[in-house]
Amino acid sequence: MAEEMKDLALEVKNLNIRFETDDETVYAVNGISFDLEKQKTMALVGETGAGKTTTVLSLLKLVQSPPGVVNADTLKVVGNDVMKMTATELEAMRGKDIAMIFQDPMSSLNPVMTVGEQIAESVMLHEGLDEKAAMEHAKEMLALVGISGDRVNDYPHQFSGGMKQRVVIAIALACRPSILIADEPTTALDVTIQAQVLELIKKLKDEYKTSTILVTHDLGIVAETCDIVAVMYAGKIIEYGSLEEIFNHTKHPYTEGLFNSLPVMGGDRSQKLKPIKGLTPDPSKIYPGCTFAERCPYATEKCTQGFPEYKKFGATHIVACSRYDEPDFHIERKEID
Fold it and tell me: Using one digit for the tens of pLDDT, what is the confidence trace for 212-265?
């Protein structure tokens, strides 16, 4: 969604992903576009089922086919067209140009390989190191994420949940990828460990000068770590902008609903939370208008008559809402300090 070509790590234009079965077709991602500049961090935010994880899996061409069908006008990782890559080229790209920290460290690690072997495996493949040198590098990576290199021969079951996630981070960063994807990296961790893992990701991102995509539903994490925010709903990006634009100058009613449903620390305890009414739309159905219309407190008849065009506010702030055709339309939301 960037207006001009910049120094880009990632280019996505008109990405569509559907899952076809004998019974139905699920439209998971519907025509989304975004760019990621080098050394920037972008958040993909939205409820469960918005299409966030499916989107990032497509960047590594890991959407299972069948049933998955991926189409895009442009899908480039550090200038390379992912859609045209051979299996060998994709294997070379994953881990080297783009790497992913998966949601559940328990299932991300191989239980019958030592953590050192799992880190070394990537380095041997992409860097051409022999086994001895790769294991030395594995020790260095463990130390980098706060685990003693002496534990290089330990197995995943010997680590706590937080330490497993650190191992997964070490694997992802072992070859210094240009792009790092973190898919809900703190979901299974307690609050204290969450903070440690996020601080570690931020530190290593700055040290390795890595571009990062953070997939999350936690707006607090977004506020602490991200430069750009893309809000997804029902497979579409419905608001996109800088952190300050999204947090302090919210435009889309859905984004407003996300903020209003958060508890306010130190606020009036008698004030109830304001959840977004209704349910997310059925992804197997095609909706003629705005997919948020049925849940939107501002919806009018025209909201059901076609998906709205993107309206631009400033250099980067974009929103998909047909009410902004009305000059005086705005949503009520207080700014966040």
Answer: 999 998 898 899 889 999 999 999 999 999 999 999 999 999 999 999 887 766
pTM: 0.90
Q: Which residues contact 227 (CB under 8 A, 6 or more apart)?
A: 40, 41, 42, 242, 243
Helical packing angle, 161-173 and 191-208, nearest 10°: 10
Q: In one letter, which amino acid is 53?
A: T
Going by C-alpha positions, the residue among 274, 239, 200 that lies closest to residue 43 is 239
CA 122 – CA 173 distance, rounded (Å): 10
Look at residue 4 and give its three-state secondary structure.
coil
CB atoms within 10 A of CB 95: 22
User: Hey, what CATH class is 8-233 in?
Assistant: alpha beta
The domain limits of the chain are 8-233, 253-325
Residue 8: its H or E element: strand 8-20
What whole-number distance in Å separates Cα of residue 314 and Cα of residue 81?
A: 30
Pairing of strands 41-45, 228-233: parallel
Which residue carries 């973190």 as its tokens? 182
| pLDDT > 80? residue 162 | yes
Q: Is the peptide bond before 263 cis (omega within 30 degrees of 0)?
A: no
